[in-house]
Amino acid sequence: MLRRRGLLTVSTFYGSLFYLIFGGARITNAFSTSKTAITDFSRNYNCRGNLYAESNVESASLSRRQVGELAFGATGLLVSFIGTRETQPEEYGLYGVLPVGPYKRKKTIMDTILPGKIWTFDQKFGILNVQVPVRMTVVKLTGGGLFVYNPIAATPECLSMVRALVAEHGPIKHIVLGTVAIEHKVYAGVFAQKFPSAKVWLQDGQYSFPSNLPDTFLGFPAGRTFTIPKDIDAAPQEWKEDFEFETLGPLISRDGAFGETVFYHKKSNTLLVTDTVLEVTDEVPKIFEDDPKPLLYHARDAMTDVLEDTPEVRARGW
User: Fold this and answer.
1) Which end of the chain has less Cβ packing within 10 Å, N or C?
2) What string of DSSP letters covers 31-87?
């Protein structure tokens, strides 16, 4: 059901957008024609009785077409609105842009890594019952304000947590997308739009399919979006105080692309990475406490198994 809703939302959203762009000219011309017809009719009302009847029939036919076109467009917009509205804190209305698990409901888990300095925000990402954590990291800068690495889905719940940090530690000054991976960049533009004073930094090699588009067409704000500098000398002064960083790639081929910039937080000896380094712990990540169904699915030995939700079963599924 969730998968069908996601596809429905995408199709109706872009269908409506396509219609409004390419069908708008027809609607505009129709209204213009109708207005002209009504004006001519008013001028000649007293002397052209027969033409009045013909004009009235033609105008009525034109109005029915207009009503049909407007109704079609309005229906698409209504379905899109229903599918994308956020009625719960965990919901992400734009999930249809990349309709993968856990679809519209994206629970956020916040964890303090270093009190007053570093925080992580976890959500889940995956296809069907193959779901893994996806993480955003927030670091307090020495000069005040916050540094965000790899934004996640900007749900009301996530934004409220981040804004609580902003209220205590200062504004978000830098938002960094340190990868070209779609599961990260699909959320970064929306997140960046929520914090209009922050500078946005993108890993070199960003791409779109089926045709490459400018970064602003992918949701990144114009005028404050930049490519991550090649070296520390070209970096913002605030980065130099807190970080060292290195970039791998971009490596682009017909089979895909890879590019990543990792940051080393000097004062805490913390390395911020995306996919270059991966740790799979024995402990089940906290994000699965909200919805353990993917773990129960993979803990089965056979499709017909019905398992009780226990810590042992979850660990086996993980």
Assistant:
1) N
2) HHHHHHHHHHHHHTTTT-HHHHHHHHHHHHHHHHHHHHHHHHHHHHHHHHHHHH---
Q: At what angle do helices 49-84 and 24-43 cross, to 10 degrees?
A: 150
pTM score > 0.85 for this model? Answer: no
pLDDT tens, the chain, 318 aa long:
444 444 444 444 444 444 333 343 333 344 344 444 445 544 554 444 444 445 554 555 567 777 788 888 888 777 777 777 888 999 999 888 888 889 899 999 999 999 999 999 999 999 888 899 999 999 999 999 999 999 999 999 999 999 999 999 999 999 999 999 989 999 999 999 999 999 999 999 988 877 788 888 888 999 999 999 999 999 999 999 999 999 998 888 877 789 999 999 999 999 999 999 888 889 999 999 989 999 999 999 998 888 999 999 999 999
Handedness of CA 130, 134, 158, 199 (dihedral sign): negative
From the list 298, 302, 303, 301, the residue with the least C-alpha distance to 315 is 298
Reading across the β-sheet that carries 256-265, which strands appear in turn?
243-253, 256-265, 270-272
Contacts of 250 (CB under 8 A, 6+ apart): 180, 203, 204, 205, 257, 258, 259
The distance between the two most distant Cα atoms of the chain, rounded to a whole number of Å, is 91
